[in-house]
Structure formats: structure tokens, C-alpha cells
Design goal:
Oligomer: single chain
Number of strands: 19
Strand content: 15-25%
CATH class of the largest domain: Alpha Beta
CATH superfamily of the largest domain: ANL, N-terminal domain
Number of helices: 11
CATH architecture of the largest domain: 3-Layer(aba) Sandwich
Shape: globular
CATH topology of the largest domain: Rossmann fold
Length: 435
């Protein structure tokens, strides 16, 4: 590491020390539990965390008061985004004040805005999770991290910003045209310091397809770690990123309301190590609220062991997967489905990041929304809202993403219909699904 990187790393841990070593303590706890998963001491600690959050939920929230007298987690109901959204105040713990917590908001994969309150210790736990699992992939705090996603228009990048101190370099998914990627690659090769990638699979796919078109040799960028998120890691991106950057990418399973739930084992494809230090994971039947056996496809249900401000017990993530046991009888997720949203293409046939729906929020608040491509150049933005939006500005902005020759219409609806799985698509492509 360079002197500046070491300085950044030391500053990070020094600030944490001044605040009571919260992040360091969480990090060490996570590392010990996961790396001693099969030990009795680790199992006892995980069970202790589970029982503590169950007792806290029952004794401090209105929603879980009905579970008084429970004998195990099996006595708790399955919850989902709609239940939480419709009973938000009832999920809040009386032990915590909102002003001392952080409100995490997301569009979610269902197209309906969703928020969760997290206490500060939970936020530190998430940071500890992030550090541990990033370290497992080859990243070390202080190193340059190129983070490719949708960034807020107001994100701070200056020397006094958190991003600068943590050496995080934001790169917008809207800056992945051929000319953007050409500059991006040149900058990578110019900077010989160690660096890591974190971003959407579709972003890495755009980079790889550009490199294919120019018959690029291997990129000399000193990349040490590649983590994909939010979308399924397909075989094309997996093989091409390895070919061009010399590093096998790994897939991370996470969401905004919880955090990192699992991450692909670096040595085994399609084996996701569950973050059992921070979550209790179950698999339920696709229709009925009953647990199912190992190897069967079902709904991924998560209990957050550390969010005391707003306990989420048996939370249906809306995702689908299977649970298996390794040779030491440690559970792992063998496959995860439902995270990959339908892909939308611009008028020239290039993939547009599914997360462009995030940009809708600048135009108003919605109960639900959905972006649909129904023709080669035809798109509709469906909005479930009581207030009309600035349609002209919205269409002008989305023409930048889809193409100036895109035919974009806005439709106000009373409801976005559910799929048979019980989910709503935030992004749908009825045109390409018919090809």
C-alpha cells in the first residue's frame, strides 16, 4: 500500500477508536463467528443473538407484542415490505428515538418505495460486514475502490468527503458509453496502484462488450478484487472479467434494508457463504408460509440479528433461492434468483442499467412505479401516484438514457399488478421476452 493509502486506513481506525471501537469490535466478532462456524462457541453466540432480538422485539414493539409467550422463532409470522410499510410505526422499538437512528430508503425490486430505521450499532455492524466480506475478496480498506452504480447528483467527492477519506471513487452507470469506457480503461492502466471494483453486473458487462469490440488484450490495471451486486453474475461477465482483468469476480447478495446477507465463496462458484454472524436465514415454500427442506427452491426469509431500532423477524426478502449443507453441515445458499431485474435496452440495442428507476424519485413520490419496454423503441413509465409529475422533464431525461428517438409515454395507474410469485417488477421488458 502507498503511504496515502496507509494513512487513510489508519485514519479510519483512529476515528473508530475515538468512537469506542464499535466497527472494530463488530468486525472481529463477525470474523470469529463465520470462521468458526462449526464450533459450539460460535453456535451458542449466534443463538444468543437470535434470542436477544426476539425478546427485544416482543418487549419493545407493538407489532410483535402478539408473540408474547413464544417458544421459538417458529412462533413469529412472516413479514414483507407491504406489511412493514403499512405498519411502520408498530415495528419501531420504544427503546430508540428516531433522531438517534438512520432512515434507510430504497425503491426495492418491487417498484414501491420502502424505508427501514436502523440504530447506530446496526450501522456499525453493516460496516463491519462490508469490511469482512470485502477483505475476503481481496480488498483492504485504504485501497482504491471503484464503485460503479447510480450515484446521487449531489454526492460529495471533495477532500473533506467520506468518499475521499475512504478512497472510494464513484463512477456512474450512465457514464459507460464507448468513449467513457475508453477513458476509464486508460485511467486504470495509468494508475498502477492496487484497486478493486464493486458494481452492477450490467455495468461490467458493458465494459467487457466494449473490450470485445476492440479486441483488447488483458488490461494492466492492478485490479485485486471484483465484486458484483444487485444483479445475477452471468457466465459471460464471470469469464470476460477474469480474462481482461485477471481476477475472478464474485457475486454478493445484499439489500439496502438489511445489508450483506451472503457472498459467493471465492473458491467455489454458486456457493454463497451466509453471513450467519448478522442474519438468520430460512427458506420457505413459494406459496405457503412453511419452511422447506434443503435443496428445494423457495423464498429467502431473513431475521436481522442486530437492528434493534426496527426489528425485522422472518422478513421475506422477495428473492428466491435454495439452501444446501457443506461437508461440515454448515448451511450455504446454492443459488439465488429474483435479484436480476428484467433488462431494458436503448434504441440502439445496448443494455440500460435497470436501476435507472432511481432517477424517478426526483420528480415526486409514488406508491408504486414501473418502467416497461414494449417495443424496439417504445417505453412506458407507469406511475401509481396522486400527483401529476413534470412529464416533459421526465421524458427529456429518459430520452438521454434510452435514445433521442425513443417513444416514451407516461401512464398513471391505480395499481401495478402482482406477478404469480407475489412480486411486482420495477423494470419489465415485454418486447425482448417475445423475441
Amino acid at each position: 500500500m502507498s503511504l496515502l493509502e496507509v494513512f487513510r486506513k489508519n485514519i479510519f481506525w483512529f476515528i473508530d477508536m475515538l468512537r469506542g471501537r464499535d466497527i472494530k469490535n463488530h468486525y472481529e466478532d463477525i470474523k470469529w463467528i463465520i470462521e468458526n462456524n462449526d464450533s459450539n462457541a460460535s453456535k451458542v453466540k449466534k443463538e444468543k443473538y437470535l434470542q436477544q432480538i426476539l425478546e427485544h422485539a416482543v418487549s419493545t414493539t407493538w407489532f410483535y407484542q402478539k408473540c408474547v409467550g413464544y417458544t421459538s422463532i417458529s412462533d413469529f409470522p412472516i413479514i414483507n415490505k407491504n406489511i412493514i410499510r403499512n405498519n411502520f410505526e408498530q415495528f419501531l422499538s420504544s427503546k430508540y428515538k428516531k433522531k438517534n437512528c438512520v432512515l434507510i430508503s430504497t425503491s426495492g425490486s418491487t417498484g414501491a418505495p420502502f424505508s427501514v430505521l436502523q440504530n447506530m450499532s446496526k450501522r456499525c455492524r453493516n460496516t463491519g460486514d462490508n469490511l469482512y466480506f470485502s477483505n475476503k475478496s481481496g480488498y483492504e480498506i485504504g485501497q482504491k475502490l471503484i464503485y460503479i452504480k447510480i450515484w446521487s447528483d449531489t454526492v460529495r467527492k471533495g477532500i473533506l468527503s467520506r468518499l475521499w477519506w475512504q478512497n472510494i471513487h464513484p463512477h456512474s452507470v450512465f457514464e459507460l458509453k464507448d468513449t467513457d469506457i475508453e477513458i476509464f480503461i486508460k485511467d486504470l492502466e495509468k494508475n498502477k496502484k492496487k484497486k478493486s471494483f464493486l458494481g452492477y453486473t450490467s455495468a461490467f458487462e458493458a465494459i467487457c462488450r466494449y473490450l470485445d469490440t476492440i479486441n483488447s488484450p488483458k488490461i494492466d490495471g492492478n485490479v485485486r478484487s471484483i465484486i458484483t451486486m444487485s444483479e445475477s453474475l452471468n457466465d459471460y461477465v464471470r469469464s470476460k472479467m477474469k480474462m481482461y482483468f485477471g481476477i475472478k469476480p464474485i457475486s454478493r447478495y445484499s439489500n439496502n434494508e438489511n445489508g450483506i446477507i451472503a457472498q459467493e465463496d471465492h473458491s467455489e462458484t454458486n456457493k454463497y457463504i451466509i453471513n450467519s454472524a448478522s442474519y438468520f436465514v430460512e427458506i420457505f415454500d413459494l406459496i405457503k408460509d412453511i419452511p422447506i427442506g434443503k435443496g428445494k427452491l423457495g423464498r429467502i426469509v431473513v431475521t436481522d440479528l442486530h437492528n434493534y431500532a426496527m426489528p425485522l423477524i422472518r422478513y421475506d426478502t422477495g428473492d428466491i433461492g435454495t439452501l444446501e449443507l457443506d461437508t461440515e453441515n454448515i448451511p450455504y445458499l446454492a443459488c439465488i434468483k429474483g435479484r436480476k431485474l428484467d433488462l431494458i435496452y436503448d434504441t440502439k440495442g445496448a443494455i440500460v442499467p435497470s436501476h435507472i428507476s432511481y432517477k424517478l424519485y426526483k420528480y415526486g413520490d409514488y406508491k408504486q412505479f414501473q418502467l416497461v419496454q414494449y417495443g424496439e423503441k417504445d417505453y412506458v413509465i407507469k406511475l401509481n401516484t396522486d400527483t401529476k409529475v413534470d412529464e416533459k422533464s421526465m421524458i427529456e431525461e429518459y430520452k438521454v438514457y434510452f435514445g433521442e428517438d425513443a417513444n416514451i409515454t407516461i401512464e398513471y395507474v391505480d395499481e401495478i399488478p402482482l406477478l404469480s410469485s407475489g412480486k411486482r417488477r420495477e423494470v419489465a421488458n415485454t418486447y425482448h421476452s417475445q423475441l
